[in-house]
Amino acid sequence: MADTSTERTMNGFSFSFAQTSLVALATGALWWPEQKLLCVSDLHLGKSERIARRAGTPLPPYDSQDTLGRLADDLERTQADVVVCLGDSFDDLQAAHTLPKQERLWITSLQAGRKWIWIEGNHDPGPVELGGTHLNDLQIERLIFRHIAQQTARNEISGHYHPKAQLKTRGQRITRPAFLLDQDRLILPAYGRYTGGLSSQSTVLSDLMLKDAVAILTGPRALPIPMPR
Amino acid sequence: MHTLPPSIATWFETKGWAIHPHQQDMMARAGDPATLLIAPTGGGKTMAGFLPTLAELAEGNHAGLHTLYVSPLKALAADIKRNLRTPVDEIGLPIRIEDRTGDTSATQKRRQRVDPPHILLTTPESLALLTSYEDAPRMFQGLQRVIVDEIHALSESKRGDQLMLALARLQSLCPGLRRVGLSATVEDPQAIARFLACHPTPCSILHADPGPDPDISMLETQELPPWAGGGAKYSIPAVLDQIRQHKTTLIFHNTRAQAEIYFHNLWLANEDSLAIGIHHGSLDRQKRERVEAAMVRGDLRAIVCTGSLDLGIDWGDVDLVIQIGAPKNVKRLVQRIGRANHQYNVPSKALLVPANRFEVIECVAALEAIKAHTLDGEPRGDGPLDVLCQHILVAAAAGPFEADALYTEMSSAGPYAALCRSDFDACLDFCATGGYALKVYDKWQRLQQCADGRWQLRDPRATQKIRMNLGTIQDTDTLKVRLKRSRGGKPLGEIEESFAASLTPGDTFLIGGQIVRYEGLREMTVEVTRRADKKPKIATFMGTKFATSTQLSERILNLLAQPDWPQLPGHTADWLNLQRDISRLPQHGRLLIESFPKDNREHICIYGFAGRNAQQTLGLLLSKRMEELGLHPLGFVATDYATLIWGLDQVTDAHPLLDLTALRDGLEGWLAGNAVMKRTFRSAATIAGLIERNTTTARKSGRQATFSSDILYDTLQKYDPDHLMLRITRTETMRGLVDFSRIEDMISRVGTRIDLLRLDQVTPLAAPLFLEMGKVPIKGTAEEKLLAAESARLLEESGLSQIASNG
Prior knowledge:
The structure holds 2 protein chains of 2 kinds. By secondary structure, chain A is α/β, with parallel strands linked by helices. Chain A is built from 6 helices and 16 strands. In chain A, strands 8, 9, 10, 11, 12, 13, 14, 15 and 16 form a 9-stranded mixed β-sheet that branches. Chain A has a 7-stranded mixed β-sheet with strand order 1-2-3-4-5-6-7. In chain A, 49% of the residues are buried. The N terminus of chain A is likely disordered. Chain B has 4 domains: 202 residues, P-loop containing nucleotide triphosphate hydrolases (Rossmann fold, 3-Layer(aba) Sandwich); 157 residues, P-loop containing nucleotide triphosphate hydrolases (Rossmann fold); 53 residues, no CATH class; 237 residues, no CATH class. In chain B, helix 15 packs across helix 21 and helix 16 packs parallel to helix 26. At the A-B interface, strand 1, helix 2, helix 3, strand 12 and strand 14 of A face helix 28, helix 31 and helix 32 of B.
């Protein structure tokens, strides 16, 4: 097990992927210490606004605030130099354009002094009027970052599916958002407040992940288990 | 006007029937604004309700809708239509009678709105839907009377609150509308009269002759009932005997799962191939209808059923009612018995079959309560605000409204007679803007105020969504079960999603009396194959969960306090003696707590005999203390008599658990994080229209798009703790709990007289608690401890720790 005591203070699970040392944080963010890079996926900012606009249901409008608050905490803890948002950062492009002023300012302040990359997702397939670089995908050293996993890719880090995993133990069933990891790919859980999850047992995730894949549960602690399927 | 027209009087004469006194009285009071008739089942109650309608329609000069009949069950509406058709045709009255329920075709429904019948039979949900249409004033024009059947059942739930708001709406459209409520015997008729009245006009009460006491006893069997277990399999031979001796027997169960298992076992032993059917709410509609039809024809000798057949449906010649499992509530039992022998002057015959030895005690106590004519039940509180929110949206769907007028209208409904303006305004604000402290939705308000001050929907397309979301019944999400075929096999019924989630391919369960094997999920349908050779895994899908009775638990505690038990069967007395030998029997003035291990977990069982609400509160309090003391509680369940708590560590000292100051500290935060609150929130938020009901199309679009209501709950708790939905959630949760002060009283009364006994296994009295429904999980440190241990074990076992370092 690669979990070392120094990494424990960060509250994460350290592992090696594509000969790169990475840490799956218990919060659902990915930390690459060598590059001082923090990667989060599927923030879905502006989701409550989009639902009110489209469906007329006024959900509690505190989701973006909550998501950004947790991101700010992770940035504070890691002192990251680079931030990669792995797509579906906004619930749709209009949500990105109409984000309340307070939240825009917050994002700007988080971006100060950092390299910030927005990877495009299926919900936000275009540039937004916020600072940072907009890319379809991003290669750094051996690793490729993109929103949706590609069947034949290797060394790939993606999001999109909002994976979650369930564990049964002593009569309790516990379900948590989870990272999914095998030799070829790593899929991040959704970081946004108003997001649901797709079970690791679903056909699409079972087909995508190799036989000996690992699920890293998020929550109070990051805990690896063999991926339930 | 209030005498019977000759044609109807003659018909009674030719039938050789005398009009019952209460039927006469109903005629005499036909002009009253509101009347509540209390009569036993089989007392010609429905006819009493309809006679004034038939009399008024006999002339044939009324155009359009005259009488609206509302019942809690679709099947009851269909049944009344049949029973009313016969006299109307025989007398030759020019009356059109139709029903309108969720089962009515769209074409028929559209036609009814354009050209309504004289008598329309419907359900609260269908009625609410009707009032949401713009053309409602036209459809209800000329409406004279509304009859609410089984009003005692409706008044127990939010469906009743919804119905009374709909009646208030109708009353505004038709100011002369007269109301009639038909009720079985209840403990507090005044409360139901207040519920039905159009305030401030009062509602009068009419009592029919209650008829003879029911003939009810406990079934005697050769076989011994087990210690625990809900199946009552031991009673099969004796019950088959009874079926042979009677014309038609109804066999009631408290849950659907028990009904399935019992039905299966009955057929395994049914050597004479007696015609026995099964009927419950999880079965496919076609299957249910087939059973109903067979019952009407008198083709069935017995029907195994649950609450779906519970209300006064008069099908066939039922001459015996059997209740399997203890009746959790005496009132419901008496109403169930009303089904047998629907003749007024013959006592109804019923048999109780306890499923285990504790239930033998419950049955004996219930029989004593029936003999003493003490009905139990909880008084109803004020109408809940989530239903009010839904009704505001329904009003908006029908067209623009004035806030003042709507408030006046709603406060005429019984449950909302005490509604204050500020609560109404809070609900209106919630419907319009979401009612958040952070005002961000001004652009996307659901309701907007027009220039003339009236409120209307911002987006008229929202009406469809409001109509789809209508209703107050909280279905747990269910999945359809089908036989696996290439192109979608035969539908068998439905199971709860949580039950489906617990299945792995190869598991077997019972549905519609068949054993099936779980093959997998396909597009939100559970695919199964037939399996006759295997024993089924217990089906744990739920049935109706029963309300409780503090009275019954008091009777039971008194019974246990006896030195011996001549009124109990020998086997049950032996069982109690065993409890006394290996542990103790609960006593007045002392608190018995048993501690024992089972299935790798530690348990404590606290016998408070304080009623379910108090035992539930005790569970919340003690699990909080256990969490603080590092005992890692995992969950609890409460009955009327006891609370069972399980966790990772053994309780060795009860006194720190019951430390009053410590119990009070941080209680609010603990309650706020509990699963009980989250469940209540989900239901209230769905009714109020904050969360949409899970529609099939929405679910097919992918699971990751929808997120749990717990997330909304936690977000509101954190950022907007005074929000209306949280207020409703707290009020509602507290209805299912008792005040902390009552627990405080109980604990200080007991003082140091606490008996904590350590045992090496489950005791006779604790065993039945393991079968209780409504377990409450605790999300605390135990979960993290379990996860960490399991993670380490699994990685070790699979050798997967390698992937992490070598990648």
